[in-house]
Amino acid sequence: MSKPSPDDRFTGRREFLSMLSAAAASGLFGAAASAAPPDVPASAPGAAPQAGPAMPTIMLGKHQVSRLVAGSNPILGYSYMGKHTDQHMKEYFTTEQTVRFLQDCERSGITAHQFSTPDRAAPYIRPLREQGSKLQYICLHSERDKIQQAIDIAQPIAIVHHGGATDRLFSEGKSKRVHDYVKAVKDSGVLAGVSAHNPDCIKQVADEGWEVDLFMTCFYFVTRKTVNKDLDVSTLDMVYPFFKDDPQAMTQVIRQVKQPCLAFKILGAGRLCSSPDTVRAAFKFAFENIKPIDGVIVGMFPWYFDEIGANVEYTRQLGI
């Protein structure tokens, strides 16, 4: 049997998203979330993941990582689409399912995972390592007094200051606290980075010559309303506004900084997933507008179809 194309694997994505919206609107999502999901590839207990076909790679310091990094927002139940979808993700991503998911990522050629909250990542990182996983970890974090704890739990190759905290501290005139955090991470012996949703934060760090090894750069300034208190945006209670032109603003900054950047929310937290064409176009835009030394972080929720395989295929096609 021939291997399905990315477009074949995306059949049903539009229907799935429509189903999510309809279920949330009708209040029936709780029943759907508790139902058994479609069959997902499972790993034999204790079996070490076998590396998939070669993926485009970049260097973070001395570490070679796949240009596509598996994100953690769906694992943690952060959908950016409302509490019904959040709950569905949380019920899907049990510890056992998270282990299988990351093993499937590794088999497909993804070599790195970005996680947040070390305490919540520990339950799945431990069995992954025990079962032979060689995934490399990038920790998103903001508590200076817990840097060593994060290292002890996950042995990450890099620790990056959390983007929401970065945006808030910069807006309050407290960027020095972020800089001190970066210095503390550097002193610990791992790569140090800064994440931000506001491109002005990235520009300031670069202009001031901070000793950062990498950036995590959000395509959408989703903290705009909380950082800019006087912003006049006439919307319903929408904590995370996604503005159409935000990716152009961030990618302009990405191209200007010398450090590797890991771009995230390239799919607009699912808002650019209405068809195979929109997803492919989002990957194409990302890889054409970031530097060759940069990568992307994509959260995946393969409840309905093989998002891992499709995203990997688009990275192989467009990220070379």
- CATH superfamily, by name, is NADP-dependent oxidoreductase domain
- Structural class call reads alpha/beta
Number of helices: 15
| H/E element sequence | HHHEEEHHHEHEHEHHEHEHHEHEH
The CATH class label is Alpha Beta
Share of helical residues: 40-55%
Unreliably modeled segments: 11-46
Largest sheet: 8 strands, parallel
Number of domains: 1
Query: Which radius of gyration do the C-alpha atoms yield?
Result: 19 Å
Assigned CATH architecture: Alpha-Beta Barrel
C-alpha termini separation: 27 Å
How are the strands of the biggest sheet laid out side by side?
A: 3-10-9-8-7-6-5-4
Strands, total number: 10
Explained architecture:
The protein has 320 residues and is an alpha/beta fold. The protein has a single domain (65-318), classed as TIM Barrel (Alpha-Beta Barrel), CATH 3.20.20. 46% of the residues lie in helices and 14% in strands. It contains 15 helices and ten strands. The chain has helices at 6-9, 13-26, 29-34, 73-76, 83-92, 95-107, 118-130, 147-154, 163-171, 175-188, 199-208, 224-227, 246-256, 276-289, 307-318; strands spanning 57-60, 63-66, 68-70, 112-116, 136-141, 158-161, 191-196, 214-218, 261-264, 295-298. Strands 3-10-9-8-7-6-5-4 form an eight-stranded parallel beta sheet. Helix 6 (95-107) packs across helix 7 (118-130), helix 11 (199-208) packs parallel to helix 13 and helix 14 (276-289) packs across helix 15 (307-318). The longest helix has 14 residues, at 13-26. The chain is globular. Residues 11-46 have low confidence and may be disordered.
